[in-house]
Amino acid sequence: xxxxxxxxxxxxxxxxNLITTTLKAHDYRYLTAPxxxxxxxxxxxxxxxxxLLDLGLPDIDGVDVIKKIRTWSNMPIIVISARSxxxxxxxxxxxxxxxxxxxxxxxxxxxxxxxxTQRRLNMIQNETAAEASVFTNGQLRIDYAAGCAYLGDxxxxxxxxxxxxxxxxxxxxxxxxxxxxxxxxxxxxxxDNDIASLRVFMATLRKKLEKDADSPQYIxxxxxxxYRMMKVE
Length: 233
Known about the structure:
Helix content is 44%, strand content 20%.
């Protein structure tokens, strides 16, 4: 079972050190953020598998961080907070948190929550792989097994890179993918900063996919950030 990448959002150094030391001891990969603004940036840039989020942050309330992340991602968020009132838990869960751990907490309980979340992630990924051999979004249809894509009844004649880009976007539908994430996923780290080349490939893909270039249906550009495939009814 591969260890997920975890974003730890905590401004209290003693708590942050406890969490990161625990993660390191159990071979988890992790990133840290000391406040809400940095947390949002790290979440959008690195696409972590799980977020461990304190609510009492110095700049933005943790509930607002959850709401912001939920506008573009369903990544699991586990709240770790000293707020123990039911209303606080309900507010966080209603905003989109997946779990709530109250401070002070035991290392064993934190690890147990992570294992449960990871099992759920793996189950979802396995179910998706088994069920979604054909992806459909509006007139777009991708047969992953056959390696073909169609717009309506017509097959799209895509280059290998265009097809890889289309599949990456479709498998993350509704999620903003950063330039770095896309280039590393398609070409590896050697292309990390080659955003100009990515734009060229994305432009050629759009010409084949979008009937009206001025009103794109499928691929949305987030200037300075990346791209997202939109859900088409």
